[in-house]
Amino acid sequence: MWLQRFGAASGVILGLSIGVPGAVEAFTGETAATGAVLGLGVAFAAPTVTALYLHQRERAGRFGAVAYAVNLLGLGLFTGVAFALNLVVFYLDDPVAKDLRAGPTGVALLGCALVFVAGTVLFSISMLRAGVFPRLPAAVYGVALTLLAVLAPLDDTPLTSAVHVLAAGAIIWLSLSTSGAYPQAENPVRPARAVA
Q: What's the burial of 118, exposed, middle or buried (CB within 10 Å: 0-12/13-18/19+)?
């Protein structure tokens, strides 16, 4: 299916746009170039998660559909946050940036992060339950992307760089597994079927 192939390719681009800047920032700190790559690369998040969902939808059941919907909404919100942090707030003077985060915008950013984390965790659980994807990247997806949201407002450190690289690896691995480049998980856990 064309949409799944597009989503898988988007996942590789998304992973690279998260991982490469993260690795570079371990040595340079955040720069305009790394921020631009990350801020623009997150545009590939929605097609990526759609491809992942389509790959597992037969086994994901109703829980998987709900998890996908929450994850998609959270990604939409957090994509805006990542764009703003990397391509807008980065260029503001420190006092202005701090004032921005302290007011109503800060509350909105927190709300976006909470929806993103909820969707990420639910979707990670749905991937583990469906058993279609390899378990390691499905679990790392939930943990690493949650940590990205928690660490986003903080200054860059080697820890944030490592989390970016882990998240990127999980996203790329999951995306490639939709095309058969990696074997699927064995012994999937089948969701319980609803009784009519």
A: middle
